[in-house]
Amino acid sequence: MYGGDKGKDAVMDFLGQTGSDALKGADILRTAPAQYTSSVEYAANPIAQSLRGAAQVMFADLGTRIYFTQHGSFDTHSGELASHAKLWQEVSGAVSDFMDDLKEHGREDDAIVFIYSEFGRRIKDNGSGTDHGSGGVAFVIGGQVDGGLYGQYPSLRAEDQLEGDLRFNNDFRSTYSTILEQWLGLEPEPIVNGRFEQIDFLRR
Questions:
Q1: What is the pLDDT of residues 151-180, one digit of tens each?
Q2: Domain residue ranges of the chain, discontinuous segments joined by +
Q3: How far, in Å, are 19, 37, 53, 62 from residue 25 at the CA level?
Q4: How many other C-beta atoms are found inside a 10 Å radius of the C-beta of residue 173?
Q5: How many CB atoms lie within 10 A of CB 86?
Q6: Contact status, residue 120 vs residue 74, Cβ threshold 8 Å
């Protein structure tokens, strides 16, 4: 599938090498579950199973530094009390299981979990729910995280709103910059496109 005559077409060479690398990576990842044992029973939902997969690869020490998953959809404009309660219960249960797994393997200080929303919500109800707005949420969880509220709790007063939205008081690029430099040891400026004040939520 990824073979053919090399050297004749640079684009095809690149695609072929990318495909071959992906197949090699898949072969390496297949070894992780066989090395994994845990007493933690993850729930049978997508977010929990994704975090279980991340734990398997992490404990196999394959060199992966960043794992990504998502859950939802939270993009509801009605019936939010019931649907969001279920979604957040799934997220909190999955993260709790993942942290228990890290502790069981003595790795709770080796990882942080960064949870963020793609968008916020309007303050006022639209009649059956709420629409997209500013002022999302972010959580950082881990053994090396100095827990607490960073920033100010958002005000609902009309004079403090931003055209009907919550007024955010932490720039997400500050959070990214903190994780990039203080956790991953990377220079954040070229990644977030500027210098942003960092937040002291990591103990390292």
A1: 888 889 999 998 889 888 889 999 999 999
A2: 31-111
A3: 10, 22, 15, 10
A4: 17
A5: 11
A6: no
